[in-house]
Amino acid sequence: xxxxxxxxxxxxxxxxxxxxxxxxxxxxxxxxxxxxxxxxxxxxxxxxxxxxxxxxxxxxxxxxxxxxxxxxxxxxxxxxxxxxxx
Length: 86
Prior knowledge:
This protein starts with 7 loop residues before the first strand and ends with a strand. With 86 residues, it is an alpha/beta fold. Helix 2 (37-42) links the parallel strand 2 (31-34) and strand 3. It has helices at residues 19-27, 37-42, 55-66; strands spanning 8-10, 31-34, 50-52, 70-71, 84-85. The protein contains three helices and five strands.
């Protein structure tokens, strides 16, 4: 089911490493996460996902995904992403 998602968003203000984001990244599903210690440990902004600081910025990052300005290869593996930001 997760592999069919357009994107996965983690909006936690404070969290350790998020298993759902990790699984999503391994499946090649684009991820958006609020900038916190756990999400920042997994996501390198505009390398293998998107990070945001405020709810407004989070909505903007999600819209980036939904409008097709982020392309992801299905062969994406954590740490070896084929994300393309344009």
